[in-house]
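SAMPLE LOG
Freezer: B-3
Tube label: C17
Construct: single chain, 157 aa
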Amino acid sequence: MSTFKRIIAVDKGNTCRGPMAATILQDLLKDDHLIVQSRGMVVLFPEPYNPKAVAVTAAHHMIMPSDRSVQLKEEDFGQDTLILVMNQSMKQKLYHTFPKALNVFSMTEFAGVSEEEVPDPYGKGMDEYNQCFLGLFDLGVKIRERLHAEEKEKRGK
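STRUCTURE (predicted):
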């Protein structure tokens, strides 16, 4: 499908936005044979996903493929891997922390929308989690469109 074979959605602790984004992208790109995963920037030990994130995702008829947070590692980066983070400061932190970091974009940047960050609903109510999910879904649709457009352009050359 794309020059990328794997997409990793990264958030701070890999318990909420990252897993929701990965689940959405996996659903939207299910016919494209991509591996879609999520990772955290700071995962001291594997934690269960946030129950509100799991519930909101399930309410939209999607099931998160895993149930434990995973730390982002140097070996997660590669020429064929797209790393999508929640904001520009996470992007800068990854480039600063990982010498082999490449193909790192904020989700909004890769989707071609404003440079706003994906709001973190942690500690808030179900409405905020649902709004986060809907925002991630909209970004996911735009990301899918970009990946498909790039693939179509690549084939046309």
